[in-house]
Amino acid sequence: MSELDDVVAVMARLRGPGGCPWDAEQTHASLVPYAIEEAHELAEAVESGDDAHLREELGDVLLQVVFHAEIARTEGRFDIEDVAATLAGKLRRRHPHVFGDTEVAGVDGVLENWDAIKRAEKPERESALDGIPVSLPALARAEKLLGRARRAGLDDGRAADASAPDSEAALGRALLEMVRGATAAGLDSERALRGATRELERELRAREADG
């Protein structure tokens, strides 16, 4: 038995007869907050540079995958093998420059091709901007929106402030100072950026619709 098989077996035991009552009563919905929390803790572990911490947090993220798969397995819907097969198929399908004969020009070409493949897989999405979770933190959603817009040719970044910080450290300090000033003025930085991002998204969608 591999270590991964062992994790799956442990999870099945926890949710099975005579197992843990808490684990047994969990649902996909009840686990959502834990998945979000573990993703944030993983990011913190990556930034810490501590391999032991990173290994532990990766395990906690893996737990979420195994947990959801075990719930689905007991309901006769799918299991962890189906999850792995779906992932492997997606990776092959979205990397035709590796597993096929498609040629791409660098990282930008990879991302543009990835977006095109995703749109073909999900024809119900009418816009290149569809599918960006509204629940993302404001800054993460703004970055995601701008990245999608740039790759779709809707925003070339020419309006960017030429005086913007040229390093992450300087950017971090500048953002912190903006938040400090906003807080002193009684403004909500998160809500403000969400509003600005929504306004930009409306403008980009209108530009996309005009062709």
From TrEMBL:
Species the sequence originates in: Agrococcus baldri
Q: Tell me, what's a Pfam family for it?
A: MazG
| Coiled-coil intervals | none
Q: Which residues does the UniProt record annotate as the domain NTP pyrophosphohydrolase MazG-like?
A: 26-99
GO MF annotations for this entry? Answer: nucleoside triphosphate diphosphatase activity
Cited InterPro entries: MazG-like_dom, NTP-PPase_MazG-like_N, NTP_PyrPHydrolase_MazG
One of this protein's GO BP terms? response to stress
Name of this chain's protein: XTP/dITP diphosphohydrolase
